[in-house]
Amino acid sequence: MAFFTRLAALAAVLASSARIVAGVASSGSGQTTRYWDCCKPSCAWARDGLTAPVKTCDIKDKPLANGVTAQSGCQNGGTSFMCSDQSPWAINDKLAYGFAAVTADNPTCCTCYKLTFTSTSIKGKIMIVQATNTGYDVSGTQFDLAMPGGGFGQFDGCSKEWGATPNIWGAQYGGSNTNQCSKFPSPLQKGCGFRWDWMRGESNPSVNYEQVTCPPEIVAKSGCSVKGYRPPLSPLQPQITTKKATTLPATTTTSSRAQTPTTKASDSSSTGGDESSSSVVDSASSPAVASRTGGSVSDATSEPSIVSSAFEAGPTSVTGIETLDEEEGGEEETCEL
Q1: At 322, is the pLDDT very low, low, confident or very high (cuts 50, 70, 90)?
Q2: For residue 32, how far is the Cα from the chain centroid?
Q3: For the chain, how long is the longest CA-to-CA vector?
Q4: How far apart are CA 174 and CA 191, in angstroms?
Q5: Cβ distance 23 to 35 under 8 Å?
Q6: Which one, of 117, 119, 115, 194, lies nearest residue 149 by Cα?
Q7: Residue of higher predicted confidence among 337 and 198
Q8: Spacing of C-alpha 129 from chain mean position
Q9: Tell me, what's the pLDDT at 231?
Q10: What pLDDT, on a 0 to 100 scale, did the predictor assign at position 310?
């Protein structure tokens, strides 16, 4: 009996090792590229392990109610396209959010990565991206940043959706070598400008990357997260520590602030695909999918002025960004802005 117990334990270890080998490394060094093909993202198909697939839009850039089952606009008769708001945006000069395509060989749909740039004039800047697309032409340590004007790649849905032309949108790979963003459709202009503003026109800088918990602002745009997702403290929601107020005797003075209600403003995808590192495609219930570089389903706002100190320390694991704890027995309490 002891023999079989040890055998079962060994099998469990081997199975665990297989999962590690099959998954994308949680950290390392890599390279960035860029693309924007307007096609339905591969992570927009139904699959196990996700709360919901990535949102998609119709040819008029309006959210699709049947986006999960709709065919990609890059295929004949397809009606599903990448939404324009899945463009990158700056939080401040040092931090930005966005989306990327990762390798289709070891996909990690809707997982987020912290990219710290290690070359060019943007060395030291940080960008957090969510994997919303996959590509068989993307290597295991490559992040193909979704960026309007970044080049179509192998498949082009932008000519169909936006009437894109090479003289403005540039080369098939890499896009335009000059800033043509003012000539782009208005919903894409800001995302296009990100390359020339926040990235200072740099091309394919190298990065160090690590897997982190997705900021809620990213999840709000893509609509996608892995099962069990718990939003971390966001750089848009820094914590402060305040002293408990001392109770004073009641007086006849009435605070005008107490009579004034306060309000808080609220903030308002290429086909194919593969899976999150913690999930497996359900071939019985989901269509077979192909890479970001094309293929049909049958083929293989506001900018903050500060960043929380918790984030600046840098998340060190998939548990995400640590929050501040209350001191035991202390007179302090933690609140969120």
Answers
A1: very low
A2: 14
A3: 81
A4: 15
A5: no
A6: 194
A7: 198
A8: 4
A9: 82
A10: 35
**Number of other residues whose CB lies within 10 A of the CB of residue 141:** 16
For residue 298, report the phi and psi dihedrals to the nearest 5 degrees: -90, -10
CB burial readout 23-32, b (16+ within 10 A) else e: bbbbeeebeb
Asked if 144 is an active-site residue, the reply is yes
Any catalytic annotation for residue 61?
no
Question: Which pLDDT score is estimated for 73?
Answer: 94
- Please state, in angstroms and as integers, the Cα–Cα distance from residue 117 to each residue in 69, 111, 114, 210, 247, following that order: 36, 19, 10, 12, 50
Q: What is the mean pLDDT of residues 288-299?
A: 40
Distance CA 317, CA 210 (A): 8
Looking at residue 25, its pLDDT comes to 74
Residue with tokens 């049909």: 296
How much is the mean pLDDT over the chain?
A: 73
How buried is residue 65: exposed, middle or buried, by Cβ count under 10 Å (0-12/13-18/19+)?
A: exposed
Q: Which of 37, 58, 85, 274 is catalytic?
A: 37
Mean pLDDT across 144-166: 94
Rounded Cα distance, 148 and 141, in Å: 22
Of 58, 85, 137, 144, which is the active-site residue? Answer: 144
Whole-prediction pTM: 0.66
